[in-house]
Amino acid sequence: EVQLVESGGGLVQPGRSLKLSCAASGFTFSNYYMAWVRQAPKKGLEWVATISTSGSRTYYPDSVKGRFTISRDNAKSSLYLQMNSLKSEDTATYYCARHRDSYAHSWFAYWGQGTLVTVSS
Amino acid sequence: DIQMTQSPASLSASLGETVTIECRASEDIYSNLAWYQQKPGNSPQLLIYDANSLADGVPSRFSGSGSGTQYSLKINSLQSEDVASYFCQQYNNYWTFGGGTKLELK
Question: For all residues of chain A together, what is the average pLDDT?
Fold first, then answer.
């Protein structure tokens, strides 16, 4: 059974940093593209970052480019999101998601339960 | 960037009714479209991929259709467990979600 368990969320002041983690199990982690997707309170979904199987390629929307960094450790079956220079508009539940396979242009087949990040002074 | 416009934003329907949700892309996305269901308090779950392929375990009352820039999700014979928010997503060029449709029972 595919499982994705996020951790690392919490309350953080504007301008500070936070690192999220996602522990994956139930599949061969190194074979899949992985992503982060966020959802502001009572709002829709926003793709935040995607990383290739080896970690050599990363993709970001303009809203987080230069501030967020996605990374992975295939030996630990773990995904990370380093978030710097946080803003109030980054307040959201952050979901770890697995792409369909090793192909970039694919949907998100599995999602974790999410971790809440609140940016506030 | 590809924009996804989803309609309606909210919808109220009766049990047993057929419901349709629309999604329009700002450019041709060549059927690279998925639909997700998010029940209150839960994470999103995949319903449909490649515009019309049903994900594993999804009831057959759900169906997807469309091509080019216009896509739709249809729910036949609405059940109480279908109360949820629904999101479309394009994956032709990076990844973009529609604004969502909140489906409630009348």
Answer: 97
